[in-house]
Amino acid sequence: MTDHATFLATLTGIVGDSYLIGPGGDFEPYVVDWRGRYHGSALAVVKPGSTQEVSAVVKACVAAGIAIVPQGGNTGMCGAATPLGDRDMIVLRLDRLNKIRSVSRLGDSIAVDAGCILADIQKAADDIDRLFPLSLGAEGSCQIGGNLSTNAGGTAVLRYGTTRELCLGLEVVMPNGEILDGMTALRKDSTSFDTKQLFIGAEGTLGIITGAVLKLFPKPRARAVAFVKLNSIDAVLDLLAQARTDLGDRLGAFEVMSRGQIDVIAENLPLVTIPFELDTPWYVLIELVDTLLSVDLNEAMETMLGNAYERELIADALVASSETQAATFWKIRHSVSEGSKAAGYVISHDSAVPLSQQATFVKQVEKRIAEYRPDARIVMHGHIGDGNIHVLAIIPGFKQDQKNEIAETILAINTIVDEETAALGGSISAEHGIGIANRERLGRVANPVELKLLRSVKAMLDPNDIMNPGKVLPAQ
């Protein structure tokens, strides 16, 4: 049996008294997920200050048989960073690994610690007249290690790709404590396997990301932003096709929201301004960007929207006349999680289906959830330009102590969404990850051969199941 006192003393010797929260300390911020769904427990919260200290902590945990839950900003949606289960475990926080290691304007790359806040990376890029394009609602508190571990998407995937596509190299502490140094900024390297891909999207189950080299891009010099009203999801998709035809690579974002989603924001977040009447069922936020100042993107936007209006694809549109108004539009989009959370118990989904099947998916899911649970408030938002739409069923009046009814409702609604997603050739997780929330859902829809391969990789790299046990892989 592990001597906890001796183990904690060993950790203290590695990181120092100030960076270990032990028995009797305030664990609450570290053992409860952002949405308050998962409440865990831990022997300690450990905050190493370097990759070498992370390595030493991992080796101490291996020797003592203690599991590790890596945690960044704790802003995840699926409970991946919460210490759950009946094993002894620690939370390993990466807050102190927060340095920008180097920035290259010529190489369009930035090397960072995994604990860097996403917004700080964006600013470091901006300081050298470059762009790091990953952008999401939690960017002021989420950490890049967590973004990489979940292969975060955000609002710029349409133009720049997911976090996986923004990563050039990684530094990882392996489950035995060894340090895998892959901090390369090379754009071309065909020397065998691309090992970094094992850890991107693995949610800390195969190792702990401690550093990353990321791609930077030329900063857009011009942009145009518009909010568009539409009468059907089919019209939304037709508008996307026309926007791609008319605007090409200048199409930076194409974000969709149902009227119900914006209603929820208006009702619960009075500081968020809705500068138009909500009188159609669908709304799209479009952003155009270009690196040339000489390009008149407002004119290009207005021409495209005018053509769409003549074709009766859109009911109305409002083009931002200033950066302030553009920020107001984006504030609506970035408020969907906070507004929905305040509206009731949220059963959310992160589905991606082929664009050709998106309208069918939306209609079928809404119809089936409404039939099962007439009192559910069904709202939707997402990055429809890349096929990712979030379906939310908000259940009024649910209390946390109604565990059986909540569990039954979650299972039924998840099954509806998963069946429709799988039938249309989609994925149940486009950008939020699997964690604990979607683990059994993955088991229902994943290819058995792929699951076998994933388990084999986990067993090979982490034979003692030290790294984030009970997450991602469904129980056998």
TrEMBL record:
InterPro entries: FAD-bd_oxidored_4_C, FAD-bd_PCMH, FAD-bd_PCMH-like_sf, FAD-bd_PCMH_sub1, FAD-bd_PCMH_sub2, FAD-linked_Oxase-like_C, FAD-oxidored/transferase_4, Oxid_FAD_bind_N. Residues 38-219 form the FAD-binding PCMH-type domain. The keyword Flavoprotein applies. Gene3D superfamilies: 3.30.465.10, 3.30.70.2190, 3.30.70.2740, Uridine Diphospho-n-acetylenolpyruvylglucosamine Reductase, domain 2, Vanillyl-alcohol Oxidase, Chain A, domain 4. Pfam families: FAD-oxidase_C (PF02913), FAD_binding_4 (PF01565). Keywords: FAD, Flavoprotein. Belongs to the FAD-binding oxidoreductase/transferase type 4 family. This is FAD-binding oxidoreductase. It comes from Tardiphaga alba. The lineage of its organism: Bacteria, Pseudomonadati, Pseudomonadota, Alphaproteobacteria, Hyphomicrobiales.
